[in-house]
Amino acid sequence: MTGSPATPKPADPVRYTPSPLAHKPRSNSSESIAGAMAGTRIPIPQPGEPPQVVKGLGVSPGIVIGRAIVLDSGLGRVHRRQISPDHVKTELMKFEQALKTSLEELAAFQKQAEREMGAETAKIFGVHQGMLRDKALVGPIRRMIESEMVTAEYAVYHTFQEIAAKFRKIPDSAFTTKVNDIDDLSIRLLRHLIGDTGQRVKLAGDNTIIVAHDLTPSQAAGFDRKKIKAFATDLGGRTGHTGIVARALGIPAVVGCQRLTEAVVDGSVVILDGERGIVIVNPDAEQLEQYRAFIEQARIFSLSLDELAGQAAITLDREPIEILGNIEFPDEVQKVLEMGGQGVGLYRTEFLHLTSNHEPTEKEQFQAYRRCVELLEGRPLTIRTLDLGADKLTQSREEFPERNPFLGLRSIRYSLKHQPMFKTQLRAILRASKLGPIKIMFPLITSTSEFRQAKYLVNDVMEDLADEAIDFDRNIKVGMMVEVPSAALLADAFAQEVDFFSIGTNDLVQYTLAVDRTNERVASYYNPAHPAVVRLIRDTVRAARRRKIPVSCCGESASDLEFCLLLIGLGLRTLSMTSSAIPHLKRLIRSVNLSQCERIARKVISLDSDVQVSSYLRDCARKIVPEAFDDRAGD
Ligand code: PEP
Ligand code: MG
């Protein structure tokens, strides 16, 4: 699905790609090529390097020109990166410095160990120093940097790996134990060469673009936004939560770039285009000029969008569509309102947990909800209970991580398993409910018994509060996300028990089509326009209408300019989305008739292939509102 409005179209050599996003870069486009990793590390300029254009999945719009910090996957695997002949000297110096620091460190450890544990035990540190002085070990590293022109960290990693592999093959236990020493020394040297991830991120200079193999949503949420202006990763899919965090923070991002980390070194100049899903490493003068022009155009375009924000979302034949915002942090409410949102349709509360080093207390959660209510000034707020698990937090805390976390203990299952934690959240929500119009929504409900259990706990907490004479909204609406096929198929049964539905297409697509939403390798299979998904949406909306309960859509597809024509045609009148998409959606809604949307929906339901549905939606959208797609003529 595409649908971004008039973004300037780049000319060659940057290939234009249709955007997966339904909105455009706004003020988060910036330029500066100030050095990354201010302070301790020297950025390596790459004057003679040829430009490389890497395509990925644009998940958060905006253009940034900056310098890279590359994060390998911990100190595990180090990717091979070539350097230009003029950088051989710098890499050799880096290596000598890391060697010197490691030797000093080992000497200090030896002294300390002698004092605390005796000379015999301290000997090991002497042995390690001897190994690091051994020409047979460090000679090949220096030679590799010189002759193969690779980074110091790769030469260290590769050389130590080779030696360890040789030792492992020798059937003598003396050699096998030496492997541990080799690994230990390799890690020590690498730490001095590339630091650990947390430290390196802290050293970021102004206008840094993080290039990483992968990032968790909490890593992304922890970035210092004053310095880290964009990020790109090798792994990741269109609707993964790391991308969602990027949008929430307004950080342009491209994921699923496959081998980008191999093409970039610290200090490389990088252009990141989060709209088109492009990363240009070592851009030439022409590309830099072209992208500076795009940044300026995006700035002017965003000014014209501000006018739209104040207008009503109403079709040509006067049907109002309620447009709400999705938020992850309370302060995002301001942006939702600025963009013209009428309230919050999805508050992903788990982000309070993801950005905190402890389990948030009832007070902290209550304060967050109260802040939202205050900012919303009487507008509606749907609080989704914790959706932890899968790609969010719990795996790193488990002693035995799950083999298949997206099918594991996530969302409501996790909450039901950790009832004290869940009840704490419910108490905080209920206490906030007396301050403004709040609804409770449960994620990933798959069966009626699961909903009943969760609802039972709400009633339980209500009783506790009543006993304590604490006020709350006794008529609070309790609804559920429809984001797995079982919920959609049983929509009629659910509709008799729940107060409302919100369709979560991000997970509904993943679970209907068996496509991991975070896996770039199967990104082409991830298509909300698949007829199976469309039918599940249709049936959910029908069931809701039959039972007269509200239904909305809060997945990313709600903000897709093509797909939302279908959603409206299927009967949806409330759409909740990332705030930056709101003005674009308003423009589209103000240009269509309800009858056109209904005709589109009827036709789509008669099609049986996702390719047909996608191209039909694309054609319709372009015919109805060509101006929204002016720049997409050549797609
Ligand atoms: C969804 O699955 O569509 C959804 C809105 O929830 P999340 O993206 O947080 O999983
Ligand atoms: Mg979901």
Describe the protein in words.
With 635 residues, this protein is of the alpha/beta class. Among the domains are: 85-197, PtsI, HPr-binding domain (Enzyme I, Chain A, domain 2, Orthogonal Bundle), CATH 1.10.274.10; 309-480 and 552-610, Alpha-Beta Barrel (TIM Barrel). It is 47% helix and 12% strand. The chain has 25 helices and 17 strands. Strands 1, 2, 3, 4, 5, 6, 7, 8 and 9 form a nine-stranded mixed β-sheet that branches. Helix 7 links the parallel strand 5 (208-212) and strand 6. Phosphoenolpyruvate (PEP) binds at residues 244, 346, 348, 387, 483, 504-507, 554-555.
Low-confidence stretches: 1-27, 32-47
* Highest CATH level, the class of the domain at 309-480 and 552-610: Alpha Beta
Number of helices: 25
Query: How is the biggest beta sheet arranged?
Result: 9 strands, mixed
CATH evolutionary superfamily of the domain at 309-480 and 552-610: Phosphoenolpyruvate-binding domains
Q: What proportion of the residues is helical, as a percent range? A: 40-55%
Bound molecules: phosphoenolpyruvate, magnesium ion
Shape category = globular
